[in-house]
Amino acid sequence: MTEFSEWFHNILEEAEIIDQRYPVKGMHVWMPHGFRIRKNTLNILKRILDRDHEEVLFPLLVPEDELAKEAIHVKGFEDEVYWVTHGGLSKLQRKLALRPTSETVMYPMFALWVRSHTDLPMRFYQIVNTFRYETKHTRPLIRVREITTFKEAHTIHATADEAEEQVERAIEIYREFFDSLGIPYLITKRPPWDKFPGSDYTMAFDTLMPDGKTLQIGTVHNLGQTFARTFEIKFENPEGEHEYVHQTCYGLSDRVIASVIAVHGDESGLCLPPEVAAHQVVIVPVIFKKAADEVMEACRDLRDSLGDAGFRVHLDDRDLRAGRKYYEWEMRGVPLRVEIGPRDLENNSAVISRRDTGEKITADLDGIQDTLRDLMNDILENLRNRAWERMESEIREAGTIEEARNIIEEKRGIISFMWCGDEECGMDVEEKVRVDILGIQEGGSGKCMNCGRDAPYRAYLARTY
Ligand SMILES: Nc1ncnc2c1ncn2[C@@H]1O[C@H](COS(=O)(=O)NC(=O)[C@@H](N)CS)[C@@H](O)[C@H]1O
Ligand SMILES: [Mg+2]
Ligand SMILES: [Zn+2]
């Protein structure tokens, strides 16, 4: 873990998550193992969203004039948009953009869908690929040009209060989702100069990566009525008048997978929450001359009974040294390994090894399903607690610019300080400490670290991806 980005690139290759050799910069191939992890992660997310969102699928290509409609929005994306200019050999009358995000794709259609207040609220999401011509240093899963796993939710409301409440609901959805992955997060309101282009304000989830830099792993935007006015999205209210709707949108991406890998990983490789691991349990037969057949028989029976009980289980019956198997499954982050040998047969037991703590437990084969389920819950709990403790230990209070500078130089991590909220002063702090203001949390009191004025906000600074 000395050089995190080297560790990260290596594990993506060794654990066959993605293949980075694809000949377009910032675009990678999901390999079978990585794809399973991605699928399991998305299943958790969809289970949460499907409670009160409808899943949809909109086109990839955006007409130039639609993309350009909302001036601030297009300004924010104009240098990141990929364009399609030809259909076959013929030049297109009007060029088409590859969606960098789908406001300008969806909202012309929302204008057709929304009629009456009885249609509202509407809550949609789609999980698609989006394209951003990132000019900063691209990194697999972290800063890509094809965002392969872009979950974007878009909601429509009759009032500002409802939109406000939806922002809170989206924040709870993200908390539940990240908690199910054991990923710690800091929730702040982005400073005005860093909010989503065209939004009223942005709430962001940041997590701390092993190298002391923060990664924005999710964002929730209150769009107010800006896009409604631009795209004429109106509804007839109970009094028969026409009003513009109020909107929110909230997004996640491949970074969710990046943070699961980075936050829980260790020197042995991946360490995956059981909910997302490709295999939750791997069975390794301990083969000696004696009783070899009985051992294999017992391992197959266990594989079948666990499979029938809904575990993602794999029996590794390859003719390889056990040690080689242990290494491989630990590197791939399989939460639980079960070994059965001749001695275990006699005792009708098995030896279970936990990936997160390395602890070995001897368990009766009768009732081993409950033992494994309990262990899987313990593992998620342990991973989550370990990750939260680590992040919280890296959040340090600074009373002066000097202190802030020293902390960032020596330890990186996250700095919290009291801020007056004035943009000038904020930019000045970023300048002096040479890191970004992540955002603020309301309800502080004290004097601004930088200018001494009254400070109603607790603000956070960190070096970011
Ligand atoms: N180049 C990128 N590679 C990987 N993830 C990215 C990239 N750019 C943004 N993201 C992730 O995508 C999330 C949503 O992007 S966003 O611009 O903040 N918000 C939107 O696009 C809104 N339409 C909400 S869906 C970000 O919070 C960030 O976690
Ligand atoms: Mg960007
Ligand atoms: Zn100040």
TrEMBL record:
InterPro entries: aa-tRNA-synt_IIb, aa-tRNA-synth_II, aa-tRNA-synth_II/BPL/LPL, Anticodon-bd, Anticodon-bd_dom_sf, Pro-tRNA-ligase_IIa, Pro-tRNA-ligase_IIa_arc-type, Pro-tRNA_ligase_II_C. It catalyses: tRNA(Pro) + L-proline + ATP = L-prolyl-tRNA(Pro) + AMP + diphosphate. It is found in: Cytoplasm. Pfam families: HGTP_anticodon, ProRS-C_1, tRNA-synt_2b. Coiled coil: none annotated. It is an enzyme of class 6 (ligase). Residues 26-273 form the Aminoacyl-transfer RNA synthetases class-II family profile domain. One of its GO terms (cellular component) is cytoplasm. Consists of three domains: the N-terminal catalytic domain, the anticodon-binding domain and the C-terminal extension. Homodimer. Belongs to the class-II aminoacyl-tRNA synthetase family. ProS type 3 subfamily. Catalyzes the attachment of proline to tRNA(Pro) in a two-step reaction: proline is first activated by ATP to form Pro-AMP and then transferred to the acceptor end of tRNA(Pro). This is Proline--tRNA ligase. It comes from Methanothermobacter marburgensis (strain ATCC BAA-927 / DSM 2133 / JCM 14651 / NBRC 100331 / OCM 82 / Marburg). The gene is proS.
